[in-house]
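Q: Given only this backbone (92 positions), what sequence would you predict?
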């Protein structure tokens, strides 16, 4: 896994409707190097998950610890370390 990259799911699309909304939740914890919010291509409605990568591992760890299971809107966030598809497939 990448120790700076977080996988975030269970995003409430009423609160997190675009990439900037996702970044706003994580920005207080450190410099974000990249972020991605999965959306349906035909409507731009979010799929309820995304990725946030921090410049520093410590910032990613802190954000994961502080935001895990916190409510954003009406949904509780689930955060884990992002894994490449190949790594996840081997494990499953």
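A: Predicted residues:
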């Amino acid at each position: 896994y990448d120790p700076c990259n977080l996988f975030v799911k269970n995003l409430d699309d009423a609160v997190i409707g675009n990439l900037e909304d996702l970044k706003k939740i994580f920005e207080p914890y450190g410099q974000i190097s990249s972020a991605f919010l999965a959306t349906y291509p035909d409507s731009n409605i979010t799929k309820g998950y995304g990725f946030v990568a921090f410049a520093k591992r410590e910032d990613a760890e802190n954000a994961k610890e502080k935001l895990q299971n916190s409510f954003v809107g009406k949904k509780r966030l689930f955060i884990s370390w992002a894994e490449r598809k190949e790594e996840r497939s081997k494990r499953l």
